[in-house]
Structure formats: C-alpha cells, structure tokens
Automatic annotation (TrEMBL):
<dbReference type="InterPro" id="IPR029063">
    <property type="entry name" value="SAM-dependent_MTases_sf"/>
</dbReference>
<dbReference type="InterPro" id="IPR013216">
    <property type="entry name" value="Methyltransf_11"/>
</dbReference>
<keyword id="KW-0444">Lipid biosynthesis</keyword>
<dbReference type="Pfam" id="PF08498">
    <property type="entry name" value="Sterol_MT_C"/>
</dbReference>
<keyword id="KW-0489">Methyltransferase</keyword>
<keyword id="KW-0756">Sterol biosynthesis</keyword>
<keyword id="KW-0443">Lipid metabolism</keyword>
<keyword id="KW-0808">Transferase</keyword>
<comment type="function">
    <text>Catalyzes the methyl transfer from S-adenosyl-methionine to the methylene group of 24-methylene lophenol to form 24-ethylidene lophenol.</text>
</comment>
<keyword id="KW-0949">S-adenosyl-L-methionine</keyword>
<comment type="similarity">
    <text>Belongs to the class I-like SAM-binding methyltransferase superfamily. Erg6/SMT family.</text>
</comment>
<dbReference type="InterPro" id="IPR013705">
    <property type="entry name" value="Sterol_MeTrfase_C"/>
</dbReference>
<comment type="pathway">
    <text>Steroid biosynthesis; sterol biosynthesis.</text>
</comment>
<keyword id="KW-1207">Sterol metabolism</keyword>
<dbReference type="GO" id="GO:0032259">
    <property type="term" value="P:methylation"/>
</dbReference>
<keyword id="KW-0752">Steroid biosynthesis</keyword>
<dbReference type="InterPro" id="IPR030384">
    <property type="entry name" value="MeTrfase_SMT"/>
</dbReference>
Length: 362
C-alpha cells in the first residue's frame, strides 16, 4: 500500500513538473522553451552583474550618460531580454492594436504588412529594417512583399537568432541580417528602395541622428515608415502619476528618454524628409494594443515561478529572475500608459526622401 502511495505521488509530481516546464514552458506558440533561457551573448555567470550595470545607467545624470553610451546600454538590455521576449511574446518585438476575431499573431502580421504596404515596394527591391530584433517583422514583410529585406540590429545575439529563424522559415534568400549601429550605418548613400522601423528608433538618444542616417541610405524618391514610441497630447509633465508611468516605461525598456508625438514630424523635416502622412495608430477606433499585455498577467506569475525554479536549480542564469521581475513591472507601466492614453507605441509617420534637394519642402 505504502509503495503504491509513493508511486502515485511520484508520478503526480513528475507529471506536474513535465506539464509546468514542457507544456507551459513555451509561453508563446513556436517560442523558446523556458529551459533554454540565456543571457544572450553574456555568459551565465555574468548575467546578474550586467543587470546591475543596466540599472546603474539610470542612477547617473542623463546628460552625461546619454549619447555615446546608449548603444552599449541597449545592447546589454537586449542580451538580457531577448530570450524572455521570444519565450513569452514571440519573434516580433512590438505591439499592435487588437482586432476582434483575429488572434494576436494575425493582428501582429497585419500591423507589419501595413508598414511595407505604406512604403510601396515592388518584388525584388531592396529595403532596410532599422532595428530588426530577431526578425519577426522582416520575415512577414519579405513573404508579403517579396522585397529583399536587410535588417540591422546592435545586438549580436539577435543577429544569430534572426539568421537561424530566416533559414528555418526558408526566407534566407530574401532576408539578410547585419550587426551594426543604426546611428552610423555601413551602407552606401542612396542604396535602398525603402525603409521601415518598428518600435526601434525610440532607443536612439537623438531621433535626428537615426533619421539622418536613414535619409542618407535611401534612394531619392523612396519612402520610410516608422512606428514611434511617444508621449501623447494627454501627457502632463506636472502630473506625478504620468511622470511615474513614463519613467517606468523608460527604465524597463532601455529608453534614453521618451519623446513627445509633436517632435516626430518636426525632426523628420529637419533632416530633409517630406512628411507624407502621420497618424497615431493607437487612437480609437483602434482597439487597445495593451489588451494582450493585460490579459497575460496570470501567465506572467506562472512564468515568474518557473524562472525562479530554473534559476534555483542552475538551469537558467541567476540574474534571469531579476530581469523577469523588471519586465513584470514594465508590463504594468505599459498597460497604465495605454489605459491613461498618455503613451503610444505606434505613432506612425510616413516620410519621403525628395527626388532632388530642390524639391524638399521647407
Ligand atoms: C518595443 C519594445 C518592446 C515591446 C514589447 C515586445 C515588450 C515590452 C514589455 C515586454 C514584456 C513584458 C512582460 C513579460 C512577462 C513578465 C514574461 O513572463 C513574458 C514576456 C513579457 C510578456 C515581455 C514580452 C515583450 C514585451 C511585451 C521596447 C523595448 C522598445
Ligand atoms: C523593440 S526591438 C524591435 C525589433 C523589431 N523591429 C520588431 O518589431 O521585432 C528594438 C530593436 O532595435 C534595435 N536597436 C536599438 N538601438 C539600436 C542601434 N543604435 N543600432 C541598431 N539597432 C538598434 C535593437 O537591437 C532591437 O533589435
């Protein structure tokens, strides 16, 4: 009898563990498994120190730290979060408005396809993905448009992940990925037929610098669309709750400082672009972009327990628990940013590089 009870208890524990790790492990369809979480290019024993280093950025005055150190700090951030993002969100590191009757995956694809439809590229043309992550949007866009997409990211680990995914998807003949800084790109002038950036240029300390680089590499007459992270007209710097939310978003998302929606078109014009269209895609009648984030709260608790167990038994790097906790709070700040309407991650701007400098509007 005793051995039967022991056997049943053991079987239940083993079954429960299998369910928790293997069934619940890949929080997102086709995503990474919890047991594969790493610190990107950072070795396991250095994850915790790098996490501390990441936070030290926010303890120093912005003016000193800002410009030249930002790409390194962003690189560290993506070493820390890339696996968790892939595990819990998927291969597209951005938001999209929810669409009734459509899954999150479908809504994500539509948001990505809209970007390439806006820049009007033809099959075989060459376009650039500015800040490409692990390439979720790149693959959707290449498959939809048959354009050749070159993605650039500052994070080497993401380059390797993106290349692996491109190959697996059979899209490596259309998709190329390079490691580099979008503030100083290694591409010649006038070499792309179009450009897009999805929730990436918010990492640039000065928007002007990245827009000027995109302007330089675009062929005259071609289009660039960007989905920008901004504070909206509802944000009041005198409101302590607003400030807390925006600072929470900046700290949990490696942002050197969120900019106002009103700066976007002005900056684009300053570097020579014509503004073709500007629209906040988060505004009604669009459905909330933050609903997926809010709905996931129970899953995040489960994920946190799982990450803590894996770190305790030495499968996940120690600092993973801290990084996960940071993201947990970030999800809350982002949701509050959406609900109050003071923040948008999809302020869309469509820009054209004039045919000749003379046709540029003042
Ligand atoms: C554009 C950027 C990233 C946007 C989003 C892709 C990510 C912002 C916050 C992230 C997450 C928050 C909570 C995590 C959760 C605790 C964990 O269990 C599973 C992953 C999360 C859901 C994670 C996924 C990606 C985000 C939604 C920024 C950086 C400019
Ligand atoms: C939130 S992710 C978005 C990725 C991708 N656009 C997507 O939607 O899946 C931001 C991306 O911008 C990249 N990035 C940030 N700063 C960069 C820089 N200075 N140079 C190149 N890439 C940068 C990051 O490495 C990351 O890949």
């Amino acid at each position: 009898m005793d051995s039967l009870v022991l056997f049943c208890t053991g079987a239940l524990i083993a079954g429960g563990l299998f369910w928790f790790v293997c069934v619940l492990g890949p929080a997102e369809q086709k995503g990474k498994r919890a047991v594969d979480l790493s610190g990107g290019s950072i070795s396991a024993e250095n994850v915790q120190d790098n996490y501390k280093q990441y936070w030290s950025f926010f303890r120093r005055p912005k003016e000193i730290e800002k410009a030249e150190k930002v790409p390194d700090f962003v690189d560290t951030f993506y070493n820390l979060v890339t696996d968790i993002y892939e595990w819990g969100w998927g291969q597209s590191f951005h938001f999209s408005p929810s669409i009734p009757g459509k899954s999150h995956g479908e809504a994500t694809r539509l948001h990505e396809q809209m970007a390439v439809d806006l820049i009007d590229v033809k099959p075989g043309e060459r376009i650039i993905d500015v800040g490409c992550g692990v390439g979720g949007p790149m693959r959707a866009i290449a498959a939809h448009s048959r354009a050749k997409v070159v993605g650039i990211t500052i994070n080497e680990y993401q380059v390797n992940r993106a290349r692996l995914h491109n190959k697996k998807a059979g899209l490596d003949s259309l998709c190329e990925v390079v490691c580099g800084n979008f503030l100083q790109m290694d591409f010649p002038d006038n070499s792309f037929d179009g450009a897009y950036s999805i929730e990436a240029t918010c990492h640039a300390p000065k928007l002007e610098e990245v827009y000027a680089e995109v302007f330089r590499v675009l062929k005259p007459g071609s289009l660039y669309v960007s989905y920008e992270w901004v504070t909206t007209e509802k944000f009041k710097a005198s409101d302590a709750e607003h400030v807390e939310i925006i600072q929470g978003i900046e700290r949990g998302d490696a942002l050197p400082g969120l900019r106002s929606y009103s700066d976007i078109a002005a900056t684009a014009k300053k570097v020579g672009f014509e503004v073709v269209k500007e629209k906040d895609l988060a505004k009604p009648p669009a459905n909330p972009w933050w609903s997926r984030l809010k709905m996931g709260r129970i899953a995040y608790w489960r994920n946190h327990i799982l990450v803590s167990i894996l770190a305790a038994i030495g499968i996940a790097p120690k600092g993973t628990v801290d990084v996960h906790e940071m993201l947990f709070h970030t999800a809350d700040y982002l949701t509050r940013g959406g609900e109050t309407g003071i923040f948008s991650p999809m302020h869309m701007v469509l820009l054209r590089k004039p045919e000749s400098p003379e046709t540029a509007s003042s």
